[in-house]
Amino acid sequence: MIVNFAVFFFFGWASLLALGLVLFRFKLRAYWVQIILASILLDYISVLLQIHHKIFLITTIQPISAILCYWLIFRIHWFYAIIITVSSYLINFSLEAVFNFASAKFQMNDFLVALQSSDIAIAVLIIFIDLFICAIVIKYRLGFTFIPNHTIRPTAFLQKNKRMMLTFFFTLIILMLSSFSIFYFHSHIAMLLQVLVVVLWFVVIREAYHKEAME
To answer: What is the DSSP code (8-state) at residue 31?
Structure first.
């Protein structure tokens, strides 16, 4: 069972990390070693959370770990790492929410139970969707280019984009609270946070396109 989890989480993280890079026009062939190293590390963290039954920490520890990997392993500045992580993580979170809601036949209580159980079939489907999105973005040269692919400090960027910075930080906090809401909050509050995360995904994409248009 642990081996199965390890293999699944490795490919899940590899596809998510690749998606984050591709969304911001980083060349994947230049980051294969970093993707493998980061996926192994994140895989280990995910397996620990799973075997110790700390699933409620998934959207707290995992995004922070991904940010640290983009920053320390990929050598992308921490603020850019937050933008990349939030953007890619929100895609997966939104897909998972939509698929679970559909599998629960649009019943709120069944939807929250489905989120707690983490259907492996839906998770595998999301991995393939991530890879499909990567292929489409690369083929048609889509994505955003305002994040530099070097270690320059984004001092000027932060000064000119305070609203964008606040949007991504706020989204990250809501995302981190979402798993706690499933296990510890009232069902209506939990559902509200799930919907809010999906809505924030559109806000984040709008902010990214606005920034891209200004470049």
So the answer is: S
Which residues of the chain register pLDDT less than 70?
A: 1, 56, 106, 108-119, 149-160, 179-188, 190-191, 211-215
- Helices 187-214 and 78-103, axial angle in degrees (round to 10): 130
Least Cα distance to 168 among 89, 55, 83, 91 occurs for: 83
Give the CA radius of gyration of the chain.
17
CA-based torsion, 196, 197, 202, 203: positive or negative: positive
Based on the number of CB atoms within 10 Å of its own CB, is 150 exposed (0-12), middle (13-18) or buried (19 or more)?
exposed
Please report which residue ranges of the chain form alpha helices under DSSP H: 2-23, 32-51, 58-72, 78-103, 108-117, 120-139, 155-160, 162-184, 187-214
Question: CA–CA separation, 116 vs 180, rounded Å?
Answer: 10
Q: How far apart are CA 118 and CA 71, in angstroms?
A: 28
Taking only the tens place, the pLDDT of each residue in 128-169 is: 999 999 999 999 989 888 887 665 566 666 666 777 778 888
| Cα 187–chain centre separation | 23
On whether the CB atoms of residues 96 and 24 are closer than 8 A, the answer is no
For 192-208, give the DSSP string: HHHHHHHHHHHHHHHHH
The C-alpha atoms of residue 74 and residue 33 are separated, in whole angstroms, by: 9
